[in-house]
Each structure stands twice: as structure tokens, then as C-alpha cells.
Automatic annotation (TrEMBL):
InterPro entries: NIP7_N, Nip7_N_euk, PUA, PUA-like_sf, PUA_sf, Ribosomal_synth_fac_NIP7, UPF0113_PUA. It holds the Pfam family pre-PUA_NIP7. Residues 99-174 form the PUA domain. GO terms for cellular component: nucleolus. GO terms for biological process: ribosome biogenesis. This is 60S ribosome subunit biogenesis protein NIP7 homolog. Residues 11-28 have a biased composition (Low complexity). Residues 1-34 are annotated as: Disordered. It comes from Eucalyptus globulus (Tasmanian blue gum). Gene3D superfamilies: 3.10.450.220, PUA domain. Keywords: Nucleus, Ribosome biogenesis, RNA-binding.
Length: 183
């Protein structure tokens, strides 16, 4: 019997996809860049993605209709045209948040189940929060739990009874389990 040569093998100089990792011609195809540089927002199929510019340059080789996702999905536009932030935006929001709320350990689970934040569960709150401002909700150990909209100002929270509503729930990290199929 004669041995057949495999048809899929080509010389390493003809295709960058088959080059070895030690080759200086093409960068490795696995994983993100160690130093990705600048980031930007991209719209793809009514979803907004937060992605490094180096990944955007690499994705230009793929057709838009074939592209499933790109980077981190931080929100989506609804059919009515309004924009909804998703829980994947939490890491970006937590790093840049101006208004923050910290919860007591006893009310963390209530917030993670999708309930609003009451004054009795409030541990700390930053100054100069006005009603309607977006806030990031943290645990007392500075772990970001989610985000919401403030219902009261900082001064009003001090006078409020323990059952008063402080933050309206928008999203929390418990959504990873509750809405696993949609994310």
C-alpha cells in the first residue's frame, strides 16, 4: 500500500494560520493582546460592545453577518429605540462610578434576588447624590454587586425611615444565573 500525503497540510510559509508560535511573521492567534491599548464602543446587531481597538482591527476580516459578538456586550437597543445597560457593563461602571452605595451584609442577598435597596440595608452612601442619578451598588467589602437609580438624595436618606426606598434595582450579578440563556 502506498502512503497518502495529507491534503490539509501546507508549507508554513504559505499560510499565516499554520505558522508556528515561534514564527516572527504572524502574531499568535490565541487570546487577547497582553497590552491591548485603547478601547472603543461598537454597535453590532442592536447591541453595543466595549472592545479594544486591536480586536476591532482583527475582526475586519470577518463579515458583519457572520460576526456573533465582539468584546464585552454592555447594552442593547430595544425595538422602541431606548438603550438598556446589561450587567456586563458593571466592571466598567464600577471603575468609573461617581455615585456609589454600599450595602450591609444582611441586605446583599435581597438585592441579588432583584429587590430594591431600602434605607435599613444601606451601609454607606457617597455625597451629592440627587434623585434620578445612576449609582453603583457595592458590598461592604467593595465588591460591585450591581447598579440602579437613586430614589432619594443623600440628605433625604439620612432622614428616611428604615423601610424607605433608596435605590431602584436595575441589574445585579445574580442575573448571570437568573437570565443565563438571554445573556
Amino acid at each position: 500500500m502506498r502512503r497518502r500525503r495529507p491534503r490539509c497540510l501546507k508549507s508554513s510559509s504559505s499560510s499565516p494560520a499554520t505558522t508556528s508560535r515561534t514564527s516572527s511573521r504572524a502574531p499568535p492567534m490565541r487570546g487577547p493582546d497582553p497590552n491591548p491599548g485603547r478601547y472603543c464602543f461598537r454597535l453590532c446587531k442592536n447591541r453595543v460592545y466595549y472592545v479594544s481597538e486591536s480586536l476591532v482591527k482583527r475582526a475586519t476580516n470577518i463579515g458583519r453577518h457572520n460576526l456573533a459578538s465582539l468584546g464585552t456586550c454592555i447594552g442593547k437597543f430595544t425595538k422602541g429605540g431606548s438603550f438598556h445597560l446589561t450587567i456586563q457593563a458593571l466592571s466598567i461602571l464600577a471603575a468609573n462610578a461617581k455615585h456609589k452605595v454600599w450595602l450591609k451584609p444582611t441586605s446583599e442577598m435581597s438585592f441579588l434576588y432583584g429587590n430594591h435597596v431600602l434605607k435599613g440595608g444601606l451601609g454607606r452612601i457617597t455625597e451629592n447624590i440627587n434623585p434620578g442619578d445612576g449609582v453603583v451598588v457595592f458590598s461592604m467589602s467593595d465588591v460591585p454587586l450591581g447598579f440602579g437609580i437613586s430614589q432619594r438624595s443623600t440628605q433625604d436618606c439620612r432622614k428616611l425611615d428604615p423601610n424607605g426606598l433608596v435605590v431602584l434595582h436595575q441589574a445585579d450579578i445574580g442575573e448571570y444565573l437568573r437570565m443565563e440563556d438571554e445573556l
